[in-house]
Amino acid sequence: RKRLKPLRTVVAWRGRAEWDQVMVGLYCGDSRLQQEALDRVSAWKSRYGPKMPLAVDCTAELIRCKVLDSSGRLKSHELILSYGLALVRFVNLITERKQKMVSIPLRQLAREVDIPVWVVDLRHELTHGKLPRLALCRRGCDVVLEWLRKTYWSRQLGNNLCEESEDEEQEEVEANAELDSDAWE
Questions:
Q1: 53 φψ region: left (φ > 0), alpha (ψ -120 to 50), beta (else)
Q2: Could you tell me if 83 and 140 are in contact, meaning their C-beta atoms sit under 8 angstroms apart?
Q3: Which residues does the annotated region (Disordered) include (predicted)?
Q4: 158 Rama sector, left if φ>0, alpha if ψ -120 to 50, beta otherwise
Q5: Predicted confidence (pLDDT) per residue in 138-149, tens digit
């Protein structure tokens, strides 16, 4: 009998250590380290092209907004547009996979993947309504980055690098409930 070689998966990153380093860099809060991680993600994207995982791409776009925000180089309106585009792309790309032949409301799709409904409402306002306040865009970015960290990055690593305490999780649930009840308007 002939033994089949296991299929090899080709990825853009050099190994688990590089993946780990980029995740920590993106989520560390230090804009210099975040920029280095963003540069690494850009290199991955140039190697991987359209096969780049959506969650990595969305995380990079949102972190780029935070880095620009902390730099003080953009005006409030420019930041709203920057955050807005990243948030709209996140909601559209993450829910797109769940769309079937029949159009399913984004709010329903968001509930299915545990994205707070107010984030979908924020996306709707950014797309169809008047632009929201910068503070709300920043909050949306933080919530979505946390969702990506829990749902994608930590699961990829199978680690506990960013575990939250139960108190922090409860605070987050309560904050999202307030925003879900249309308090964000």
A1: beta
A2: yes
A3: 163-185
A4: left
A5: 999 999 999 999
E strand or H helix that includes residue 49? none
Task: Indicate the residue type of 149.
Answer: R
Domain boundaries, the chain: 54-159
Q: First vs last Cα of the chain: how many Å apart?
A: 67
Q: How many Cβ atoms are within 10 Å of 58's Cβ, its own excluded?
A: 23
DSSP letter string, 118-139: HHHHHHHHHHHS----HHHHHH
On whether the CB atoms of residues 130 and 120 are closer than 8 A, the answer is: no
Q: What is the mean pLDDT of residues 79-90?
A: 97
Residues sharing a CB contact under 8 Å with residue 14, sequence separation 6 or more, in sequence order: none
Query: pLDDT tens digit string along 28-71?
Result: 999 999 999 999 999 999 988 888 899 999 999 999 999 999 99
User: What distance in Å separates the CA atoms of residue 119 and residue 125, rounded to the nearest whole number?
Assistant: 10
Report the C-alpha gap between 55 and 156 in whole angstroms.
Answer: 11
Three-state SS sequence of 14-33: CCHHHHHHHHHHHHCCCHHH
In sign, the C-alpha dihedral spanning 46, 9, 64, 77 is: positive
Q: Which residues contact 28 (CB under 8 A, 6 or more apart)?
A: 34
